[in-house]
Amino acid sequence: MTQNSRKIILVDMNAYFASVEQASNPELRGKAIVICGDGRTIVVTASYEARRYGIKTGMTLPEARRLCPFVIPVIGNLDKYVDVSLRIHKIMLEYTDQVEVFSIDECFLDVTGVEHLWGGAVNIAAGIKKKIKEQIGITCSAGVAPNKVVAKLAAKSKKPDGLTVVEPDEVENFMFPLPVEKLQGVGIGARLSEKFRLMGINTARDLAMADGGFLKARFGVMGAFYKNVGLGRDSSRVKKYSEQAPVKSVGHSHTLPKDTYDISVVRSYLLMLCEKTAARLRGYKLTGRTVFLMVRFGDFEIFSGRETLKSCFNTGYGIFSLAWKIFERVLPLKKAVRLLGVGISNLAGGDTQQYLFEDMQKKQKLSAVMDEINAKYGELTVKPSSVIIAQKHGILGRCGIISTRLIK
Amino acid sequence: MSVTEIGEKIKAGVVFSRNMAEPKWFKWKERKIDVISTNFIWNTVEGSAMLLHFSVSAEGGYYELSFNQKTLEWRLEKTGEKS
After folding, report:
1. Of A106, A134, A275, A301, which residue is the catalytic one?
2. How far is CA A235 from the centre of its chain?
3. How far is Cα B77 from Cα B83, in angstroms, rounded to an integer?
4. Considering only CA atoms, which of A347, A193, A332 is closest in space to residue A263?
């Protein structure tokens, strides 16, 4: 089979989170809505009605309201969106097991070997769109092409509710006129497209025709990749649904309900995030050695750092110890803290290291017991007492971790 | 409209058919609220319990109900009541 004879589909849900909320609540349909976190807010996504006013992802809610005073903010519910995604995957899996989840709202399908059962790849794409609309009540755009790069760009080319087909002999006609900014999402980010512009590479055609040696000198091994993107060539395969990408890092971040200089509040939130991260790590049966911390201040300036130990661990206390050590680099605080993010990488599989020292052994046992109770009754039903400070400051549901239900 | 978080236990009248549960009415604050339509259903997990969530429309507005399949408890999670 040649690369050109493949049939790849990319299904991309339209304004996904907003669409799910509009399907969920008829009062929101046809209205300008934005999905935000709880408390104060960054726009995570906007409905198409809101986008007409220029509202975009990443804006603050006050900015969005300036563009559209009647925009309705809706608090996001990730659990809902994940569940709906899984239902969408089931629809796709009716056609093939080669369904690669690219993101929460995008999937690739390779229907090369099965399209004859369904009257062709375009029929499959149309069938998936129809079923998603009927069963979930939301629309998507689909791209059908000989490879993943072109399929993704084809899906992007018509939103909402599009179905774009690019045959093998149409790839150059489709790709070449695209400005480099339109190649974002297929390995070329915003900064890179700016660099291309400065180099006189303005379109996919310019990129395709650029000298391979020049691109290699400028970008190393990625030079050849970028040239292939310009040409609309891509030989990467679509993974099967059952293939899981290895976990490379685990982390959590949280925007505080209000900016704070209060170290006890910061400490409490950080400990909470560390406990949550550690619980997930243990759930994956992984340990890690490198802890990274991100702090966003009230003026949106960001501080980040990392620390690595020689041995692996997966306790909340262990992660917190390193995270706090990193945080101490910004003390005394000159600016209020707005957001905290913590994570752990350099992961390894298998059981945790057996500690020699009794206090670390106790912490391991305690973590195991906490995991068992929290698994039964809800995340952080049992929590370190200092996390209660975060509760009083205003814990937010989208951290998703504080259970208010009592053990009975 | 604005949505208010409630999180209170309720009584609910439900029809089970075609492998699905469909709430028909619920009682909250001594009011009986008849469900006009179920708009959306989704699942979440809380501890070891599976929760079924229902977005429903009623005369008073929009409501989000949840059913804990382990405790068999119904809760009113949110309302978007019309003013």
Report:
1. A106
2. 24
3. 19
4. A332
Instruction: Write the pLDDT tens digit of every residue in A60-82.
Output: 889 999 999 999 999 888 889 98
Residues in chain A closer than 8 A to B48 (CB atoms):
375-377
Residue of B nearest to A137 (CA): B40
SS3 state of residue A287: strand
User: Which residues have a Cβ under 8 Å from the Cβ of A80 and sit 6 or more positions away?
Assistant: A20, A24, B42, B44, B53
Beta-bridged to residue A73, according to DSSP, are: A34
Give ranges for CATH 3.30.70.270 in chain A: 1-167
Q: Which fold has domain A176-234?
A: DNA polymerase; domain 1 (1.10.150)
Assembly ipTM: 0.88
CATH superfamily of A1-167: Reverse transcriptase/Diguanylate cyclase domain (3.30.70.270)
pLDDT digits (tens, 9 = 90+) for A289-305: 899 999 988 887 888 89
Query: Can A49 be counted among the known catalytic residues?
Result: no
Question: Which one of A25, A26, A375 has the shortest CB-CB distance to B47?
Answer: A375
Instruction: Give the mean pLDDT of chain A.
Output: 85
The distance of A339 to chain B (nearest Cα, Å) reads 24
The CATH class that applies to domain A250-399 reads: alpha beta
Asked whether the whole model's pTM tops 0.80, one would answer no
What residues of chain A have any CB closer than 8 angstroms to a CB in chain B?
20, 23-28, 72, 74-75, 79-80, 83-84, 137, 374-379, 381, 397, 403-404
